[in-house]
Amino acid sequence: MNLRPARKESHDSPATATTVADPTHGAQHVAIIMDGNGRWAKKKHLPRALGHKKGVEAVRNIVRAAGEMGINVLTLYAFSSENWSRPEDEISDLMGLLRQYIQSDIEEFVENGIKLKVIGNYKALEPDIVKLIEDALDRTAGNDRMVLAIALNYGAQDEIVRAMQNVAQAVKRGELTPEQIAPEHLNEALDTADLPPLDLLIRTSGEIRLSNFLLWQAAYSELYFTDVLWPDFDKRELQRALKSFGDRQRRFGGR
Ligand code: FPP
C-alpha cells in the first residue's frame, strides 16, 4: 500500500521555485503513548473522567493534524492490557469515551480517507464495542490517505507471544524449521504486519518508559519524550516532535 503523498512543490514563481519543507520530516509512522490525563485533571481540580474526556479532544485534534501534515500511519495507545487493573468506574469511563469517539468520528474518517486499524486483543472488549469497531474497520477498509491504528487491550509482550504462537504453528505444520525462523516471520505475525516500520515514538507527561508498547517495532525508532500532558498535546507539539525527529541522524546500527 503506497500511502505517501507526493511532496508539495511551490510554483508561485518559476524562477525562485522552492520546495516546501515536508511537515513530517520524513516520518511515515508515528506512535504516541498518550499519558497524563489524570494529572491534567488533578492540576485543574477536576475529576479524572474530565481529564480523559479532554484527552479524547486531543486525540481528535492530533488525528486531524497528522492527516493534514501527511503522516501515513498514526498509532495511538488508548487502552493497555494492564489498564484492566484500574478502578471499575474509570474503565467504564474509558470504554464509554471509546464508544462515543467511534460513533461521532466515523463519518469524518470515511470522508477524510482515514483507514481505521486496531492492534491488540480488542475482541475481549464489550460486544457492542467490538461490533462498533468491526463496522468502522469495514467502512474504512478502502481508505488510503492515513491509517489510524488504535491500540486497544494491547500489550507488546502479549502481541509477541501471539505472534510466536503463530510461527510455532507454522513449524508444527512443517512449513519451516525452528532454525529457519527469522525476524521477518515475527514481523509478519505481529498485529502491525501491514504497517510500515515505526519511525517515531512519542510519550507525553514526562514519564520515560515504553510501558509495554510496540517493544518489537521500536527497535530502531526514534524516541521523543515531552513533559506536556496529553490533553495539552496539540498540532504545535506534534510539529516540535517531528522537527526533533528530522534533526536526528538515523544509522540503524551502521555508522
Ligand atoms: C493516560 O492517562 C491515558 C490513558 C489511560 C490512555 C489514553 C486514553 C485517552 C486519550 C482517552 C480515550 C481514547 C480514545 C481513543 C477514545 P492517565 O490516566 O494514565 O494519566 P495519569 O498518569 O496522569 O494519571
UniProtKB/TrEMBL annotation:
Binding, substrate: 36-40, 48, 52, 80-82, 84, 86, 203, 209-211
Biased composition (Basic and acidic residues): 1-12
Biological function: Catalyzes the condensation of isopentenyl diphosphate (IPP) with allylic pyrophosphates generating different type of terpenoids.
Enzyme class at the top of the EC tree: transferase
Species: Parasphingorhabdus marina DSM 22363
Cofactor: Mg(2+)
Keyword annotations: Magnesium, Metal-binding, Transferase
EC number(s) on file: 2.5.1.-
Name assigned to this protein: Isoprenyl transferase
Domain of life: Bacteria
GO MF term list: ditrans,polycis-undecaprenyl-diphosphate synthase [(2E,6E)-farnesyl-diphosphate specific] activity; magnesium ion binding
Catalytic residue list: D35, N83 (proton acceptor)
Note describing how the cofactor binds: Binds 2 magnesium ions per subunit.
Region of interest (Disordered), ranges: 1-22
HAMAP family to which the protein is assigned, alphabetical: ISPT
Signal peptide bounds: none
Subunit structure: Homodimer.
PANTHER family (UniProt xref): DEHYDRODOLICHYL DIPHOSPHATE SYNTHASE 2 (PTHR10291:SF0), DEHYDRODOLICHYL DIPHOSPHATE SYNTHASE FAMILY MEMBER (PTHR10291)
Family of this protein: Belongs to the UPP synthase family.
A GO cellular component annotation in the UniProt record: cytosol
One record GO biological process: polyprenol biosynthetic process
